[in-house]
Write a structure and sequence with these properties.
The protein is mainly alpha-helical. The protein is built from 7 helices and 2 strands. The chain has a two-stranded antiparallel ribbon with strand order 1-2. Strand 1 and strand 2 form a beta hairpin. Helix 3 crosses helix 4, helix 4 packs antiparallel against helix 5 and helix 4 packs parallel to helix 7. The two termini are 36 Å apart. The mean pLDDT is 82.
Length: 198
């Protein structure tokens, strides 16, 4: 049993790393399209984007898990966190982590990417767990529901892009070099270990 669990964790980490780029791309595009469907004028309606409002409430458990993973990764990476908060702008529930000071670009990119990889790993684990533990239909449905919620949060956010830009502004020269080196390192890792064409 213990060997099966180790094999499951190893396989899920492999698949999480392999599938993070396409999942990140697809979810980012889908969330972007959903955002574009919202109202353009601020005070036209409290629920600027009813569909986004509905999805943010439905997938709240996944959002909490995703934010929790981001918090842990940020702390491990040494990113100083000012606070963890939330907002209901226009009826859309948003969870966010506010940092005290933009970290180095390399640390930030690695932390952001690790956050998505670990989130995909958790979601994949939730998908296969019912079959490994032979759970009943109710628990299987709960695991599926939470996994979809975690996947739904695996996207690029405007706040993340803004934080990267802030880090680059603080160290424009070394930051640009770090950005190129880290992105190239991730691509090389895929090419060498995963056989993924990038």
């Amino acid at each position: 049993m213990q060997t099966d669990i180790v094999a499951l964790v190893t396989a899920n980490l492999y698949f999480a790393f392999q599938w993070t780029p396409p999942i990140l791309g697809v979810v980012t595009v889908l969330r972007g399209l959903l955002l574009l469907k919202g109202q353009k004028r601020e005070f036209e309606d409290w629920f600027r984007n009813p569909l986004m409002t509905f999805l943010s409430v439905v997938f709240l458990p996944g959002t909490l898990i995703y934010t929790g993973i981001r918090y842990v990764v940020s702390r491990i990476a040494g990113i100083k966190i000012a606070r963890v908060g939330g907002s209901t702008t226009y009826g859309e529930l948003n969870m966010f982590i506010e940092v005290e000071k933009p970290p180095r670009v390399s640390i930030l990119i690695i932390a952001l990417y690790s956050n998505v990889v670990l989130s995909v790993f958790v979601a994949l684990t939730l998908l296969v767990l019912p079959f490994v533990l032979i759970l009943d239909l109710a628990w299987t449905a709960i695991c599926l529901y939470v996994a979809i919620g975690v996947f739904y949060n695996c996207s690029l956010r405007s706040g993340e892009a803004g934080l990267v830009m802030s880090s680059l502004r603080e160290r424009p020269r070394s930051g640009a070099i770090e950005l190129v080196v880290v992105v190239a390192g991730i691509m090389l890792l895929y090419w060498q270990m995963m056989g993924v064409v990038v």
